Amino acid sequence: MKRRSERTRGPAGTGRGAPGIRPSRQRSRRVLVIVVIAVVIALIVALVVAVSAVQRWVFSATAASPAVGTVILAPPLSKARLALDESGMGAAQRDATEYLSKQPTAYWLTPEQDPPGRAGRTVSALTSAARDQDVSLALVIYGLPGRDCGNHSAGGLSEGEYHRWIDEIATALGAAPDVQKIVVLEPDSLALAPQCDNVAERAAQLRDAVDRLQVARTWIYLDGGHSSWLSPSEMADLITRVDVADRVRGFATNVSNYQSTYDEFAYAHAVAAELDGMHAIVDTSRNGVASAGSEWCNPPGQRVGDPGGTYGDDVVDTNLWIKPPGESDGPCQGGPAAGVWWPQAAQTLTADVLTSDAQ
């Protein structure tokens, strides 16, 4: 008979508590768990990337260009909206400002208002607002070095700053592949280039900007001047020098000008005929009477034009309000500096619309 204190022992090293066996198994299990978790995380990341890539491809493949019926965002950050928070306007000026703040209009990205470091946040806020309202977003990018050739809208960024600014804007645009984005790139930059004697420089700058802005559902339009400026052949030659016909939708005419819609459509057709298939958009924000002739700086007696998305054909995708009515062209005709909200102009431009609405 065995005593209670005696125990049967197996082979040496296999008894409970034998050194080295349990810690080794625990380490193996930990390693296995870590490997499994890492594999699962990698698969999830790969799946997210794949789904995102597929979504972006679908958005790009199914993207429709601007057309009749296109509605763009009335920017919540517009100068008309901001002006409503200020005092000093009479009742008629406030009514005009409020009316214009609600109209679908392009938002102008300038380094003065949306400098590097802020521009991306602004674009993200605008794409979010467009998504929420199920509308398109129209942006004007206006910050080239030596902008406006020293005229009323002079300014712009240095070359390096401009590249970073465009990259920031492009990143924010690319983060919203589900939103249709319309980009009018640097108005007046090409039509002014012969006068500024910097055609080659401008063409290179615009080419680089276009390359940086290649993101999903983004339709880019270069500067196309207007019908009372350069001839169609001269304008077409300038656009050709940028050499981006395969990467842009076309060109924009009458931006910040007052020429008639009829004349601008005819002009767009004449320019496009020399560009082998390029399309156009026309700014109709302030051409309601089209009596300004060659005067471009706050000509008196003008009115807002037809709303965006009203007209279009096989060359002109559609018309849009690109220049915000109510913003000054510059310190002329009693107006403030270029781009500053001018309540008197807002009242004049909307006189016919608000009178007819009141009847």
From TrEMBL:
Molecular function in Gene Ontology: hydrolase activity
Keywords (A to Z) from UniProt:
Carbohydrate metabolism, Cellulose degradation, Disulfide bond, Glycosidase, Hydrolase, Membrane, Polysaccharide degradation, Signal, Transmembrane, Transmembrane helix
Q: Which residues form a coiled coil?
A: none
- EC number, UniProt record: 3.2.1.-
Locate the active site.
Answer: D148, D188 (proton donor)
According to the record, the residues making up region (Disordered) are 1-23
Q: Which PANTHER family match?
A: 1,4-BETA-D-GLUCAN CELLOBIOHYDROLASE C-RELATED, PTHR34876
- Family designation: Belongs to the glycosyl hydrolase family 6.
Q: What is this protein called?
A: Glucanase
